[in-house]
Amino acid sequence: MSQQEARSVTVRAPAKINLFLGVGPVRPDGYHPLATVYQAIALYDDVTVTDDERWSVQLTGESRIDLAEVPADDTNIAIRAGQLLVEHHGLGERAARIEIHKGIPVAGGLAGGSADAAATLVALDRLWDLQTPDDELLELAGRLGSDVPFALLGGTAAGTGRGELVEPVADTGSWWWLVVENDEGLSTPAVYAAFDRLAHEIGDGTVADPIIPPALLAALAEGDVAGLAASVGNHLTDPALLLRPDLAHTFEDAEAAGALVALLSGSGPTVLLLCESMAHAHIVHREMVDKGHTRVSAVPAPVSGVHVVTSPW
Ligand code: C5P
Q: What is this structure's pTM?
């Protein structure tokens, strides 16, 4: 293999959380309109791409990550991202080997697959020197999945449409979250379906169009942790609890451990605990571990979106 063919690029992509996830009535295409605020947190997947004759994906991960649920064939969203970029630029038979090292829990409501797709777009764009304009990358990302554009952007951003239309918002805070992982994943479509069921069974079937709470945006702009704790929310909490009643214990434990607030991450089952500071995060972390939660990480936020970490030649 020539040196040209052996080149690789590694790109890092963050997990996302939703500080607010407002869900509206299901659309004719099956998606739900969202009014959400995303934040990128310091859990990452690294994606390395290398020229190859055919598409393939190799998976490794940190010891706490369950890789069994991640497809290792053409259905992996990273391969779909690569193929979409090739099609967009008319590159014919171009292909790559994609190595994914996962630090983001799988099926946890942290958009790990979306992070991999966003990282693959940027890594291949660099490997092949395509210089795809940002607006085109965002558009391709939106076609791959609702959360993929935010992974490109990172930081803190409002999301509308089905979540794919992203706009940065002012955030002066240095936030600390505890991420409480769960042994069993939760399917996003199943949680949205439970949302629809609850709307019909408990409500009268009408769901209001969601809006981002102005108090949340003010708390972010001011870096006000008490204000943030008072204004976070997630409309998928009840549907996720319907499917996974055991999650109620995590919320109870979080409160007893002294978290400012506990929040379901996306469609779950990961639960996020907002802490006042790094020192406070250490204390709450110890309490959660004492209560039997073994996979708990303290992470700062916000962090950057996808970025190149190595391109060694
Ligand atoms: O866009 P993405 O492929 O990540 O969405 C996965 C699934 O989550 C969709 O098939 C749909 O069932 C659900 N979803 C939704 N409304 C959204 C985003 C996702 O119903 N805004």
A: 0.96
